[in-house]
Amino acid sequence: MSPRTPARRLAALLAPAFVLLLGALPAQADDNDYVAIERGRYLATVGDCSSCHLHRESPYAGGRGIEAPFGTINAPNITPDPETGLGRWTRDDFARALQQGVSRNGGHLYPALPYPWFTRISREDSDAIYAYLRTVPPVSNAVNRDTLPFPFSIRAVMRVWNGMFFEPGRFQPVIGRTDEWNRGAYLVEGLGHCGACHTPVNALGGSRRSQSFAGQALQGWYAPNIGGSSYQGIGEWGVDDVVQYLRTGANGWTRASGPMAEVVQRSTSRMTEADLRAIAVYLRDQPGRGPATAPPALAADSPRMRTGQAIYVDNCSACHRRDGQGVESMIPSLASNQIAVQAGPETLIRLVLSGSRPAATDAEPTAPAMPAFGWRLNDAQVADVVTYLRNSWGNAAPPVEASVVQTMRRQLAARGE
Fold it and tell me: Any idea where the Cytochrome c domain is (predicted)?
């Protein structure tokens, strides 16, 4: 008999205990699973993680303020720093945060982390993102996570909120739909969390799912209707139009600006063609929300339209042309423009007041900037020219009052913009 036999017998006896012990320990991602890490890198791009967690030292070190209905919430550090980031988190901790909105310490997270959408992410994808984040350089950056006023600062309040507005559960493919449609549904309704911006919320910050993708005012902009409406949505866009917009930030209908420009630059422009087409197929199949038809346009000879036209000719026509057609592949057309006819005029007002630099992508590296006119035009003049834009060249939308412009100007000043 081999002298090692007793040791082997002891090992055999202890093996089940070790298995139980290891099973009780938090599971960790394999840092050498390069396939999972690369998949996680792509998925983190699809989820646009860096736009919220952006920091001057790292795309993921956090600290950026996210405007919520009840105040501003600072995005946390999600680098693997052990003291200020996710260095001590397990993949189970990470999945619970994404899918349930619960932190490592058991505290409830706010839906600034869009867990009402991320709950649909598969565990495989959650683990891959976790594996990737463990490979990014750790950055020591302590973020103040308690910035909301009382009583919203009490995280236990989220128990009630979750009970009212949160429906946990993984994505389930819809039988009878194509694989492409289901992939688009998974991306739009889950990881891409498009509805977090484009779906209106109620007074308590819960999404109005009956109005999914109908658009809403958000952070001083208006996230437009991206449902199947022919009037305010993308009902007239083709699949190729949607793909081109997401890949380049521009198409024959409009050009991305503001937060959407950042989404295009950091996320959608880096996605695969197949995923972009899946998103397009799914979005174009969504029902039209909001008004089905346009209201009557203001009469062209009304005083406000005549004043707005004069301001437009003096300040805007050199680039956008008198007929509002713009310059193909450079200056967006204002005719039959989706942004111009949204329920809220916030985006147009902001563009006139502060100007904008649209998305710059590999496919469209030259992003034509729009200059600011807030220094030159008073509130009434801005309101008149925006009213003119919303009711010319096939557009039709309610007029804009000077008081709305005044409010926007004050908000921009408060933000230092």
Answer: 35-137, 179-287, 303-393
Number of neighbouring beta carbons within 10 Å of residue 15: 10
* The residue type at 135: T
Nearest CA to 116 out of 167, 153, 160 is that of 167
Question: From CA 125, how far away is CA 121, in angstroms rounded?
Answer: 7
- Give me the mean pLDDT over the 240-250 stretch: 93
CA-to-CA distance for 50 and 45, rounded, in angstroms?
A: 8
Provide the mean pLDDT of the chain: 87
| Number of other CB atoms surrounding residue 219 within 10 Å | 16
Q: Looking at per-residue confidence, does 249 or 273 come out higher?
A: 273
Q: Which residue has the tokens 């329920």?
A: 343
Helix axes 273-284, 179-186, angle to 10 degrees: 90
Q: CB 363: neighbour CB atoms within 10 A?
A: 12
Instruction: Please give the sequence-ordered ranges of beta strands (E in DSSP) within 148-305, or none if there are none.
Output: 216-218, 221-223
Beta bridge partners of 67: 72
- Give the pair of three-digit tokens for residue 235: 């009902």
Residue 59's closest CA among 83, 47, 33, 77? 77
Confidence of residue 24 (pLDDT cuts 50, 70, 90): very low
Q: Please, are residues 231 and 297 in contact by the beta-carbon 8 Å criterion?
A: no
Q: Which two tokens stand for residue 306?
A: 């005549």
Residue 106 burial (10 A CB sphere; 0-12, 13-18, 19+):
exposed
Averaged pLDDT for residues 299-308: 95
Q: What is the pLDDT of residue 32?
A: 66
Amino acid at 107: G
Distance CA 359, CA 225 (A): 19
pLDDT over 80 (residue 81): yes
> pTM here?
0.87
Determine how many CB atoms are found less than 10 A away from the CB of residue 275: 21
Collect all residues with Cβ–Cβ distance below 8 Å to 218 and sequence separation of at least 6.
67, 197, 259
